[in-house]
Recover the amino acids of this structure.
């Protein structure tokens, strides 16, 4: 390891290599606090050449490596298993180009999501994917996890907004994928790399699509007696052909936590659930759509429907929604944020079962979620130091995933698999289906040097799925 | 070969195996008439099990195979090089499920694009990708080529509308990729397979996204003195933040051909260019947007701006636009349809250079194209029996591609690479970039048994790009 540390220091300079225990501690986990692993070192390269040299040095020393953005991920994707080296991208933080005429931006992976929004707003443009952590999370991390956000319903996830990538492959080769014009001949490897959770290489540049700012955006609040009525309103809104920018449900427990926090926005704490509906587009259309949404909410049983009176109030509502995880975090030392997706039409029954699971395990479970996408976020407040409670959290989590998959859903909508849900990939995919993915991994990283132990049930399973890779030496993860 | 024919006949029944020369002749080419190759046999399986068995039989006999839809492709992607077996998907033509609540349809690959539109219209839904050949082309072929169409500007290409796939891999294994809920954990292999031009396996089922029919759609015709003014209008419309469903330019020569054909729609034959603008969405917004588009057209120098008076006239305009290739086909025995993409802002200069190239080579070149996407379709009318003219067509084609790439574009927007443009992949990609794609191919088909000779410059190049595959036996293509 000393040899590798010296090599890394030579590449990036000694100040950009962290290896003292107290320096490494903050890299022990990401947003998923229950899974942890200390890296051997953290290295902070400043350009693509340094990234490539760092990767090659790790390979030469037989040490795995893990690309990392801001560490806000929620599935353990950015932790270094097998004592790997963390390649932190925070110094690759420049916006290289904003091309307003062609509506694209070229950025380095360490640019913070919200910084890009600020930089392009003056051009009448915005970058659509808006994860709740957007004040901290980076565009490289967003691409690695294929992040979503409330606006996914209308605008799609990160994969719909990344046009081209520059990537250091796990063997140190630098390649460019895709094209800034939005279509590219040959295989769509941009799509395969986006969402690959840092297992196919280290991003060094992204070309992203910018969208024109809508002429008008309005936010409506439907106040409901219970979550199921709010879900019914969501179903009716979608069935009517409307495509809101966002359709979010916040349940009673989450409202209480938010209103007791710095994110307080005047949400009614006596409501069973609040439905936040964002409509954007041409001003005349938005005004009329608001009326239609209001009618659907009332028909579904809303006690009250309010529209944000001005931009300031609208932003307050959204800060409350996006701050919900932070607010929940104040209720207990730890927060487990789940992320399953079910067909929209099955939301009410699945939510009922999710709540029953939480109650049965005696857990404090709340729900704040992207209802329009069927993307659930059951949140469990707990204390990981209480091993017995942690065991109940884990058991409930597995039950929740099974219920969602049985309803025709999947185990992750926007947070990734990481270390958290790798065992559950088999709930969704057959061995043959998973094996097809493993073949892709083997094509770029047959030895699992790049972010090992993520996404797939076991490293052994993945390696054995590659007909050509059978026989590789490897260590089964604990 | 006789052994394979007997095996195929046993799998699908003798009537579904075609091997007589007169039966094979129609499979000699696809819509790209200048590239041809006779298959050894054509087989028409009726379900996924038969497809898998056919693939395994071909592999057992060492014969390559090529999946084929309706054969309307324009880049030679569906022809059987190396005397392969064509696997025709026309019998896999059932719509398996329409789920209006979740806005998805599950279809077999042989379903004709327009048939799906008909089937879902009653639910207030539509399938967005609308290639000009949609009355004939199939959804499997659309997925293989990642087909676009006029509505790509607002709705994206096929890849944005395919949620899940069932696929027989080149080794005969059946896998399911993606998820009907629209996001799926693990690698996005759906994205990699869509646009892979039949080189990664044979599709047997697709789950596609349906979109709500817009409340209103209007089509506006801007009549311009020349193509460059029409391009200027396109730039102004986009810069204003409007997102029309389609922005199409038809030039003078194409108008003349269309108006002399069955597709005649009353387009002004004395115009230098017509800009077709489709606006769709909420009725109030569309009405106002029409006025804004009208103003942009007039400011850019339009002589006249007309709005289709009713649905019948609107459909006539679109039939004219989509029939343009057919109409051009009447001018000469052959039509070469190019398909490059350039950054929208550079359309005027690129078009001028494209026309200059056509003139210099003494060719009848016309332009009808997706201006909003920067997707050019320079069409050359010619007679392939005239070898000297064919040589000029080829030389001009290469010059056009070089001009587009120099302008920051790519060599194909929606027609694929196939056999047609494989040599030109190097204009866009470095060997390392192409090598990354070849690794993916090698992961699924190291011996290039599935649709050999397509997409990549040479089979040898592709095989040698896979570090693990070096040393495979193979025949270099002529």
């Amino acid at each position: 390891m000393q040899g590798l540390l010296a090599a890394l220091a030579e590449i990036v300079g000694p100040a950009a290599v962290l290896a003292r225990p107290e320096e490494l501690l903050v890299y022990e986990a990401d947003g998923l606090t229950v899974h942890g692993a200390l890296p051997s070192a953290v290295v902070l390269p400043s350009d693509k050449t340094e990234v490539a040299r760092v990767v090659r040095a790790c390979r030469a020393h037989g040490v795995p490596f893990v690309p990392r953005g801001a560490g806000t991920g929620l599935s353990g994707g950015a932790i270094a298993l097998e004592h790997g080296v963390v390649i932190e991208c925070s110094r690759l933080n420049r916006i290289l180009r904003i091309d307003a005429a062609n509506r694209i931006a070229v950025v380095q992976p360490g640019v913070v999501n919200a910084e890009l929004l600020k930089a392009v707003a003056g051009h009448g443009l915005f970058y659509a994917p808006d994860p709740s952590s957007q004040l901290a999370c980076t565009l490289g991390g967003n691409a690695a996890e294929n992040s979503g956000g409330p606006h996914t319903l209308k605008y799609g996830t990160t994969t719909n907004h990344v046009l081209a990538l520059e990537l250091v492959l796990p063997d140190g080769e630098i390649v460019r994928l895709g094209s800034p014009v939005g279509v590219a001949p040959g295989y769509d490897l941009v799509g395969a790399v986006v969402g690959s959770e840092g297992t196919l290489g280290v991003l060094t540049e992204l070309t992203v699509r910018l969208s024109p700012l809508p002429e008008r955006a309005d936010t409506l609040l439907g106040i409901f007696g219970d979550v199921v009525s709010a879900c019914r309103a969501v179903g009716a809104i979608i069935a009517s052909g409307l495509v809101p920018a966002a359709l979010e449900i916040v349940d009673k427990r989450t409202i209480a936590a938010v209103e007791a926090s710095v994110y307080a926005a005047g949400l009614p704490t006596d409501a069973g659930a609040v439905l936040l509906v964002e409509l954007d587009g041409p001003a005349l259309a938005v005004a009329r759509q608001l009326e239609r949404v209001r009618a659907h909410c009332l028909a579904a049983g809303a006690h009250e429907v309010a529209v944000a009176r001005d931009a300031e109030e609208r932003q307050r509502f959204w800060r409350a929604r996006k701050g919900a995880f932070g607010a929940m975090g104040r209720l207990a030392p730890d927060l487990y944020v789940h992320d399953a997706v079910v067909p929209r039409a099955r939301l009410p029954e699945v939510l009922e079962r999710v709540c029953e699971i939480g109650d049965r395990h005696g857990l404090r479970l709340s729900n704040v979620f992207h209802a329009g996408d069927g993307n659930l976020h059951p949140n469990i407040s707990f204390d990981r130091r209480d091993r017995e409670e942690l065991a109940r959290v884990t058991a409930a989590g597995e039950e929740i995933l099974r219920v969602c998959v049985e309803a025709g859903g999947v185990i992750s909508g926007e947070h990734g698999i990481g270390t958290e849900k790798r065992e559950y990939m088999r709930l969704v995919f057959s061995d043959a289906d998973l094996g097809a993915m493993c073949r892709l991994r083997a094509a770029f990283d047959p030895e699992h040097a790049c972010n090992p132990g993520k996404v797939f049930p076991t490293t052994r399973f993945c390696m054995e799925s590659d007909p050509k890779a059978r026989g590789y030496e490897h260590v089964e993860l604990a």
Q: What stands out?
A: The longest strand of chain B covers residues 216-224. DSSP finds 17 helices and 18 strands in chain B. Chain B touches chain A through 90 residues (CB under 8 Å). Confidence is low (pLDDT under 50) at residues 469-478 of chain B.
